[in-house]
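Hi R.,

Here are the chain sequences for the assembly we discussed:
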Amino acid sequence: MRLNVNPTRMELSKLKKRLVVAKRGHKLLKDKQDELMKKFIDLIKKNNELRIKVEEELTESLKEFMMAKAVMGSEILEESIIMPSETINLEIAKKNIMSVNVPVMKFIREGAEGASIYSYGYALTTAELDGAINKLYNILPQLLELAEIEKSCQLMADEIEKTRRRVNALEYVMIPQLQETIKYITMKLEENERGNLTRLMKVKSMMEQRGV
Amino acid sequence: MIYMYKIGVVGEKDAVIAFLSLGMTVSAVDTVDEAIRAVDKMAREGYGLIFLTETFAKDMEETLLRYQNQMVPAVILIPGTQGSLGIGLAKIRDNVEKAVGVDILSKKEG
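And here is the predicted structure of the full complex:
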């Protein structure tokens, strides 16, 4: 498919400039894609491993919670943990990986100083609950890491897809189109040139024949 | 550029009550509609991280997609009371396929 332009010198020089820009853009985008892909593959592998691990541990911890609930009864369980001794907040900073903004998360714990993670008296609760909460506490940092990595992966996958579209559009549509059009204009101009030349030669020979 | 966010948990009561003890904001829901509303509400109120149990996530494709391309909030799936349903892992696969074009993770196992 060639572009619909007039075969003039003006258009030719314009198209040549566009081709140079397109090629440079293509190279840059391709580099970006490669680098993103490299980072993404590292990250996604980590993501996969971490998710399997966290899911396993979380399921286990939830099971223990269920056990605690079964042993203690749900009212007492709810009563015991309804007022946690601390609250957790999240600090999110931005990090830029190849123009993708990915979050960097950090837990901030707020609570009374020296408060234990067990926000209840031990009289009515069982050891199962202590164990379950303790376990959940230990998973927390991993859970956060998972959240951070998984979100990054989502964002990067999106950006990679976009970049790949652009690279392909440049590589397989824009650049060939420009090249073909440039070729067409060059040919057309050369043809005109040749036509002009033969016309001149013809005129010259006609003039000579008339016997000047 | 550092902002403070809260952490929310959405899911069936038995699964999310555990997170209450960690000091997160918990929203116990019974139906998918309620879950969608809870997630949307948390997103509006400036929660940076929302954990959602897979039990509901499997029917909330639309809502998940809406938050997928935003940096905040991050909606992260966690196994519910039925254990892991494999949706979280499937999502990772989807990401890989989207980015790379082929599934490079499962090839390793098989």
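The mean pLDDT of chain B is 81. Strands of chain B lie at 2-11, 25-28, 47-53, 74-78.

Let me know if anything looks off.

Best,
T.
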